[in-house]
Write a structure and sequence with these properties.
Elements (H helix, E strand, L loop, with lengths): L1 H36 L5 E2 L15 E7 L4 H16 L4 E7 L8 H12 L4 H10 L9 H7 L5 H8 L6 H12 L7 E4 L2 E2 L6 H12 L9
Parallel strand pairs: 2-3
Antiparallel strand pairs: 1-5, 2-4, 4-5
């Protein structure tokens, strides 16, 4: 009787172990598969052009819902800079402010960028902010402004001290709600909202597809 019980217990333990192992393997497989195919799980937005502020004649239109404190936004920006060099004048970027609540300096950095825009230096400030995310809170915003080529620093300082709502941030948040944006960076490429930000190779591949007259996302 004791031997029979031992056999039953052993069989039960082995069966449970196999089931647990199978579940773990299944979880890892599906998690991995989801991570590798997620960029292709895109949704086409019919009214995506409502967000555009970039050059309308560029064949590749990228819209980024971004947060200047978001490290993934910084990584995407570096990837974008690389592909822009490869495809000069073919890619236009519209940056849409979407500062996240959990980021201490995100809203302040958005105001800094808009104050730089007032002096025609938005793109330079955008580059500077993404490049120097680690300096947020450690260096004065005037240092960023000087590096971005903002000429009237007194006017810039007055601008960043304002506390009223930032119109472009409010517009960005409204667009984010409209397009069901839930995190940053959220990327839209010629109307296709991607499931996650693309890698450098994925972005380059999508741009080449558009320039060849094809869909940037393949089958969805």
């Amino acid at each position: 009787m004791t031997r029979s019980l031992d056999i039953v217990a052993t069989t039960t333990l082995v069966t449970c172990a196999l089931i647990v192992t199978g579940l773990l393997v299944r979880r890892e497989f599906f998690t991995s598969a989801q991570q590798t195919t997620q960029p292709d799980r895109a949704v086409f937005l019919k009214d995506w052009r409502a967000a555009l502020t970039s050059a309308a004649d560029a064949p590749v239109q990228l819209i980024e819902f971004g947060d200047f404190e978001c490290p993934f936004c910084g990584e995407f920006h570096r990837n974008l800079s690389a592909v822009e060099r490869r495809h000069q004048n073919m890619v236009a970027l519209t940056f849409v402010h979407f500062p996240l609540q959990g980021h201490r300096f995100a809203l302040a950095a958005a105001r800094v960028a808009e104050c730089a825009r007032d002096q025609g230096r938005f793109e330079a400030m955008r580059d500077e902010l993404f490049e120097r995310q680690d300096d947020f809170g450690l260096k004065p915003w005037s240092d960023f402004a000087a590096a971005a080529g903002v000429s009237h620093l007194a006017a810039f300082d007055d601008c960043i001290k304002r506390t009223d709502p930032i119109p472009r941030v409010e517009e960005g948040r409204a667009l984010g709600r409209k397009f069901d944006v839930r995190g940053t960076p959220t990327i839209i490429i010629n109307g296709w909202k991607l499931g996650r930000p693309p890698t450098l190779d994925e972005l380059d591949h999508m741009i080449k597809a558009i320039l060849a007259g094809k869909s940037p996302v393949g089958s969805t």
